[in-house]
């Protein structure tokens, strides 16, 4: 797998640049990244397949640990949005902050 820098260079230097794509093959310094991108990305026309899109969305809904993500909470909802004064510790830190003795 090419480095992040090489992938960005391939995308911005050739893949996203229609004039350079129309000029022919990618330059030698971008060729490896462009080959990798071609082999490891989905053709946009394939996104018409609902099963493929569902698989992609389900994959995005997982954390790196492969556990389901918690649903996002809107600001101000739920018990963690307001910390009552009783959650303040004697050292002046709230319960959400590590108290150093």
Provide the descriptors you would attach to this structure in a database record:
single chain; 101 residues; mainly alpha; 41% helix; disordered C terminus
How do you describe this structure in short?
This protein has four helices and no strands. The protein is mostly helical and 101 residues long.
Write a structural description.
- It is a single chain.
- With 101 residues, the chain is an all-alpha fold.
- The protein has a domain of 57 residues.
- The chain has four helices and no strands.
- α1 packs across α3.
- 6% of the residues are buried.
- The C terminus is likely disordered.
Instruction: Label the overall shape.
Output: elongated
Number of strands: 0
Strand content: under 5%
The biggest beta sheet reads: none
Mean pLDDT comes to 77
Using only C-alpha atoms, the radius of gyration works out to: 24 Å
Number of helices: 4
Q: In which range does the helix fraction lie? A: 40-55%
Task: Provide the low-confidence segments as ranges.
Answer: 81-101
User: In terms of structural class, how would the helical and strand content be classed?
Assistant: mainly alpha
The helix/strand series, from N terminus to C terminus, equals HHHH
The CA-CA distance between the termini, in Å, is: 47 Å
């Amino acid at each position: 797998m090419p480095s992040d820098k090489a992938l960005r260079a391939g995308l911005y230097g050739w893949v996203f640049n229609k004039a350079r794509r129309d000029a022919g093959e990618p330059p030698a310094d971008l060729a490896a990244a462009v080959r990798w991108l071609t082999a490891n990305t989905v053709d946009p026309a394939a996104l018409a397949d609902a099963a493929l899109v569902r698989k992609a969305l389900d994959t995005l809904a997982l954390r790196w640990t492969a556990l389901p993500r918690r649903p996002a909470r809107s600001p101000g909802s739920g018990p963690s949005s307001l910390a009552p004064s009783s959650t303040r510790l004697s050292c002046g830190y709230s319960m959400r902050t590590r108290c150093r003795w």
